[in-house]
Amino acid sequence: MAAALELRRRGHAVSLLDPGPVPHPLATSTDISKIVRMDYGNDELYTALGEEAIAGWHEWNSRWGQEVYHETGFLILTREPMRPGDFEYESFALLKRRGHDPQRVDRAILAERFPAWAADQYADGYLSTGGGWAESGKVVALMAKDARAAGVALSEEVAVTGLLEEGSRVVGVVTAGGDEQRADCVVVAAGAWTPTLLPHLGDVMWAVGQPVLYFQPPNPDDYRLPHFPLWAADISRTGWYGFSATEDGTIKIANHGPGQRVHPDASREVAPQEEARFRRFLRDSIPELADAPLTGSRLCLYCDTWDGNFWIDRDPEREGLVVATGGSGHGFKFAPVLGGIIADVVERKPNPHAARFAWRSRGEPTSEAARYTG
Ligand SMILES: Cc1cc2nc3c(=O)[nH]c(=O)nc-3n(C[C@H](O)[C@H](O)[C@H](O)COP(=O)(O)OP(=O)(O)OC[C@H]3O[C@@H](n4cnc5c(N)ncnc54)[C@H](O)[C@@H]3O)c2cc1C
Questions:
Q1: Which of 136, 146, 210, 211 is 20 to 30 A from 303, comparing alpha carbons?
Q2: Which residue's alpha carbon is nearest to atom 15 within ligand 1?
Q3: Distance between CA 371 and CA 257 in Å, rounded?
Q4: Quick check: CB of 34 below 6 Å from ligand 1?
């Protein structure tokens, strides 16, 4: 959607095809919230991109005249004291070097300022003051409205089933209804469905199911700002993260772990044992929340690349095809900047960020892919 909007703004005629209503209920972007952060260990590129994206989120809030990005800060806790080399320590240090003001949170500060947390379990951490969360499903709906108003031809309930090829050149797509749509350039940005649609990418990216659980405690005010911001609990070693209570009192909790490889059209049921796993974590870390009623769950799909970096490039063997996917569990926050990167790739313009997301063979995973595995 971001690419369609940006390409249209640059004067191209753009058709956007999607099998769902947009936002598609099963699309990864469609959820109540996604974290927006610039905390990326010692990774300068994602940190800089996070800074740019946050500026973009403020512009979008102004443009839409409503707050869909909430700059609440991000509480990042560690069980052991942070040490050089840790994701958390390196994030803290890099933010400081770049002029931000993350605030260290030791056990005493945690107990005093953030009392829902079991302070005996968390020795260290910091409050990242830039960043927060975006109402992701709502954002996609607003972008779709903007896209239509800008003249993007948005067709819903139209699934692309394959590429229209003439020799090694891609000249359009074929839809489930058997129609052929021709284009100078085809951008496939089908998230977790991409490797199914383009099987030649199956060795470098795949769909991974990640359970998300929603709780509704009887006392939601205890889980709101200022004493309960967006959080990550020893995330580089455990994967746990979650949000403050929303206006209707819902608390979303998830785990940025390895997940399970799935077919994107397989059942989206969350395995029954997940609730017990989530509650074990809560009992240990946010004890009062451990018995809160569960009000919903969702199996959300990552499109994981082998190295955790996005995949935005022209297919070197299929002229006319651009692939823009590989969110790897951390793509949504960059929505305000990804359209520009994808449009530059389409127009063959240099972009300072594009090299990281270029077409590549499978190799050793990098830090973004190095998730908690245990
Ligand atoms: C549990 C979970 C938590 C996450 N948390 C965060 C977070 O906190 N912060 C963050 O930044 N990121 C997060 N992410 C990652 C982020 O949500 C994704 O990187 C991002 O939303 C991917 O967007 P997308 O447009 O690539 O894919 P999607 O949003 O899935 O969109 C793909 C679109 O392609 C369409 N499509 C599918 N098949 C076809 C077809 N055959 N023809 C045409 N169209 C098709 C779909 O209908 C859909 O609309 C999370 C992901 C998950 C699963």
A1: 146
A2: 329
A3: 6
A4: yes
Q: State the Cα–Cα distance between residues 24 and 195, nearest whole angstrom.
A: 18
The strand pairing partners of 300, in sequence order, are 210
For residues 116-121, give the mean pLDDT: 98
Is ligand 1 within 6 A of the CB of residue 249?
A: no
Alpha-carbon gap, residue 217 to 279, rounded angstroms: 13
Q: Is the CB of 282 under 6 A from ligand 1?
A: no
Residue nearest atom 26 of ligand 1, based on CA coordinates: 191
- Is the distance from CB of 223 to CB of 251 less than 8 angstroms? yes
pLDDT single digits (tens) 216-244? 999 999 999 999 999 999 999 999 999 99
Which atom of ligand 1 has the smallest separation from the CA of 190? 34
C-beta 327 within 6 A of ligand 1: yes
55 C-alpha to ligand 1 centroid (Å): 22
pLDDT tens digits along 287-328: 999 999 999 999 999 999 999 999 999 999 999 999 999 999
**Is the CB of residue 32 below 6 angstroms from any atom belonging to ligand 1?**
no
Q: 28 CA distance to ligand 1 centroid (A)?
A: 3
Considering the entire predicted model, what is its pTM? 0.97
Domains and CATH numbers, the chain: 2-27+151-204+313-369 (3.50.50.60)
What CA–CA distance (Å, rounded) separates 337 from 363? 27
Q: List, in sequence order, the alpha helices (H) in the chain.
A: 2-9, 44-64, 87-97, 107-113, 136-150, 194-197, 235-238, 273-285, 335-346
Report whether 12 contacts 279 (CB < 8 A).
no
Residue 137 to residue 32: CA distance in whole angstroms: 6
In the chain, the N- to C-terminal Cα span, in Å, equals 35
CA–centroid distance, residue 226 to ligand 1 (Å): 30
Q: 213 in ligand 1 pocket by Cβ < 6 Å?
A: no
- Tell me how crowded residue 300 is: count the other CB atoms within 10 A of its CB: 23
* Ligand 1 atom showing the smallest separation from residue 22 Cα: 49
The answer to whether 298 and 163 have CB atoms below 8 angstroms apart is no
